[in-house]
Give the backbone structure.
Amino acid sequence: MNSKSAWRQISMLNYQMSLQVEACDLLLGDNQTIAELKKAKFDVGISEVIGQCGLGLFKQLGLDHMIGTSSVGLIDSMAELYDAPRLPSFVPSYLLPINAKMNFLERTMNFITSLLSDIAIKGLIVRKHEEVFVRHGVFASEDDFYHKTNYLLSNSDEFLEDSRPITAKIIHIGGIALLGKAQLNNVKLLQMPSVFREAIIHVAEAFPKITFIWKVDKDDSVPHLANLHTFAWLPQQALLDHPKLLCFVSHAGLNSVLEVTRSGKPSILVPIFGDQFR
């Protein structure tokens, strides 16, 4: 869903969470798996916190120490649970394509979006998970879980995030998987998918002096163009580090944003959903 409407994005998020809740119900009801995990006697549990199932699992296993992770960076309501205040007056919502320099209308939109997000997450998503927890004998509220969570590891870079107060519980680890500058290897030329084929061909034809590289499925085909090269797999980090790269086009996935920022290359971002609009 490509929409800048906060309510439409919240609706999509609610749908995604309903799938997570269903999967959580299956996991917590798998007595054999739970028994095997209990035998391992883990000391600490690490789980994504957007969906609370991992927290319920850790409660079943009797773990007292938990570490939360966030693949989409620091979300408003999530930060609040780790003692960082929610400040819509100058901290933009992750659902809106605005920055910290907001005018009055944008501040109003940001405040309303913050309220809607809180209602959607705590009133719908959290409640659904708590119903699953109770069904499987896990009696604790979401706040109880978060108070037992020692740290939140956020997939974000503090220099890319908008300025906001945080606490010692919140640790930015964005780019932790990025290695040093990589060298390009010889990659075999493959074929290009038919989706958006004509548009990409048109752009490549319009700029014959620029070389275009596209990551595609290997079973697809495309008419030959001297300046358009297609591959089934690409060493993205090595390409971004190459001195001849002029521009990087992406849907603004957070990991790609972290990689292109690290490389210092110009980029064109085409956001589709959720935090990508930031």
Summary: Residues 186-193 have pLDDT under 50 and may be disordered. Residues 104-135 form the longest helix (32 residues). The chain has two domains: 6-172, 197-277. The chain is about 40% helix and 10% strand.
